[in-house]
Amino acid sequence: MIVRDIAKISLSNLGRRKVRTLLTTSGVIVGILTIVTMVSLGIGVQEQMLRNVRALGMETIFVQPATEEQNVFTMFMQLAQPKRTRIITPAIVAQFKQMDGVSQVTPEVDFAVPMVLKYDGQQTAAFPGSSRVQNPFQATVVMVAGRSLSTNEPSGLVIGEVLARELGVRNVASMVGQEVTVELEQPRGDQLDLPIKVVGVSNGRTLEVAFGDKVRLKEWWFNKQNLLETDGYDVVMVKASSLSKVTPLAKQLEDMGYKVQTLLSMVDLANRMVAIMQTMLASVGALATFVASLGIVNTMIMAIYERTREIGILKALGASRGDILRLFMTEAGLIGLMGGIVGLILGWLLGLGLDWVAHQYIGSQGITITDPFFMVNGWLIFGALAFGTLVGLFAGIYPASRAARLDPIAALRHE
Amino acid sequence: MTDEFLIQATGLTRQYKMGTATVEALAGIDLQVRAGEFIALMGPSGSGKSTILNIIGGLDRPTSGEIWVNGTELSKAGEKALVAHRRNRVAFIFQSFNLLPRLTALENVELPLVLASVNPRERWERSISALQQVGLTERLNHKPTELSGGEQQRVAIARALVANPMILLADEPTGNLDSARGAEIMGVLRNLNRNRGLTLLVVTHDPEVAGYADRTIRLRDGRILPSEAG
Asked: For residue B114, is it within any domain?
């Protein structure tokens, strides 16, 4: 038989039992839809991370203080940070600057504690961030008024325009130069009010506090003097003068006893995490597709039972076992392929829908991300269609070979 | 075997297992058929008439014995050879016509050529010509259910002819038709035998149908009865 005839006969057989074909296909559709949605999420997230990491520059090396090794016991006993065994003091930072191949050193202190902003009798809650160490999903901060903070600035803050409005300010630019009171409250009840001058207003909802102020707030929070000398910086970004200097510099810093991460290793780690996430989520879809394949097996066995006499007639007219096998395999494969096509389209649409919802939500939180979270690429399209077809073919093996082996005389007697 | 006979069977037996019992459909048959003969096979139900047709048609294999058709020993032939045999040398006509209900008359006739990978244009021409030979020039795009019994059997005969076989195997071809339609069909078959030299083996209960044949072979309990005069 020629391919065109096989395809034509298979399609007409499927079209003959439309409802059954539709129901059988729907199982595959659900499976492929799940896989496409999940994998496209993985692709989108990966793309965004890579783009942001590239924007930071691949020359950057992140140096963190070395900590005590953690085991299960210490992890539960010290819910806070593990004890630092090698800290990065300002003196060490100065040392980093002298190293060969270093073009820039930016030390940073983490202080992510919820705070209350007070201004002109109004108040709102905020969470300080940093525009220098970027969250991979965070878009670049754009200044609306005033200026941004520079490295190591002793005092000042940049307030997001959403926060400014929450403080009752209509003309956000008018805040530049004014003092905002930052209030911290310890769980034990102590309270600190620190007035800080606004140097700029940014878009979104971010709050950025100058380095000096951050250290002051942190020292009060942990009740420590000279925090930079006792605990050191939390992270130091060392920028190599060229890409070729990254690996030797990282090695040198590691030998000095610090925890070192380059963007190369971070990209690698992120890729691995995305791959794990993708695999887990896609497994759900694969499982659904497997269940769907049982539906295909069932439908095909039914079809063969109903068409036993027809198979007998075809054999009497000169059909070989291979012809019968190909006919039924093609039918099963077509169910899989149709499921793949519809599942791909619906999964794609679902991704676009979820993407829209996600961006609406993120936008309402004052963060601007324009890049999509769900991305479908050529490999995903090809993979979804191929997987659907393979599942159909796989499900067709047993029923089709049963049909091919039917005894023609018994088949012709079948009512 | 000799080249004298188109079909030559010696010591042909066929046993079926029905649960624990063994049914002997053929109990040692010797048969010779010359090319162009028109033979009627008669006998009561279960006498083995249909089994002989199925074995000659390559749908069934004997339990023992030899069966040569046009130089091929079918009991030892492989699957490929049997498929070629069914495609090129023999064709079946059934009591219940066995047309595919979803296909039109023309598409049913084309089916053997579809299976044989003949290109669409050629199979259309050959099918039309086969339908003309059985006297069907209208209603070619009707489904079998829209045709009369006689018309359906004509379509089935056209389907049998379309691949130019040497042997036509007919199992009670008039069993589902009234006597007038039955006579028409037998007329068509006899013409094919006379004009095209088609070898015909017709299984029947009906002595009138057997009357069209050159020779009648009577069977009982899987054996051929000694022939009467003529």
From this structure: yes
